[in-house]
Amino acid sequence: MSVAGRHRPVSVPITLSESEGVRCLHFGTPWVQGAMLVAQPQVLVLEYIQRMMAWLLFLHPPAEILQLGLGAGSLTRLAHRRFRRSRVTVVEASRDVIDVCHACFALPPADERLRLRCDDAQRFVARADASGRYGVIQIDLYDADARGPTCDSLAFYQDCRRALTDVGVCVVNLFGRHASYRRNLARLNRVFQGRILALPAGTAGNIVVLAFKGPPLSVAWPALRERAAVVDRHFGWPAGQWVNAIRQARPGERCAV
After folding, report:
1. What is the number of other CB atoms lying within 10 angstroms of the CB of residue 19?
2. What separation, in Å, do the N-terminal and C-terminal C-alpha atoms of the chain show?
3. How many other CB atoms are found less than 10 A from the CB of residue 111?
4. How far is CA 27 from CA 93, 100, 108, 109, 202, in A?
5. Is residue 234 domain-shared with residue 163, that is, in the same domain?
6. Which element (helix H / strand E) includes 91?
7. What's the total number of domains in the chain?
8. What is the DSSP string of 228-249?
9. Nearest Cα to 173, choosing from 195, 199, 193, 192?
10. Do residues 80 and 88 touch, judged by C-beta distance below 8 A?
11. What does the pLDDT look like over 68-103, one tens digit per residue?
12. Which domain holds residue 136?
């Protein structure tokens, strides 16, 4: 199956680096746009990429997942390999990035569970079915400078919320050290009516925000820790630390969002 596209592909200067078995993708700058452990491509190397899977604390893998921004394909490889009942749609503006991910980052070919779209993310979600389709939308949209998201308008986040199913989670990678962080957080708060959880900044400064759609959610902390133990056991991520970080920001007997 070929890569579909509806717009003129964006051309970006792509460079690669490799050290101690980890291959990194760059857009012509020192900023790392994605990474892969060459010997184990399904392992999530970067801390913030692992944290973008924190939605698993609240939701089982849905039937449809939308990934906006391919990077080095880490989230796509994982979902295609581990979430056998989910169909993943990836939207990436650069055909060069898609080609390099196929050639150098073990990106699987498109099939019945993986659709690759060479398209603009903002235009794609604006065209999305008004009834909602995706249970999870993962947003990781950065340019060569890797400072602030390339799509962060109020209309963009409104379209993302509309594209979610009745119960769904929108996951956004923000950069806490950039001026765009507060602006994006305010817009997400407005669009999702305050129903957001922000994990504290990791070592690289990335802050992962979970934005929820659906009925109010209230989970007892022990139950959330049990779920974190399951995620840790299956994937090897420090999910218990995510729960501890969330609880520090949300005191009380339950995690309510």
Report:
1. 8
2. 40
3. 11
4. 13, 12, 21, 23, 22
5. no
6. strand 87-92
7. 2
8. HHHHHHHH---HHHHHHHHHHH
9. 199
10. yes
11. 999 999 999 999 999 999 999 999 999 999 999 999
12. 4-215
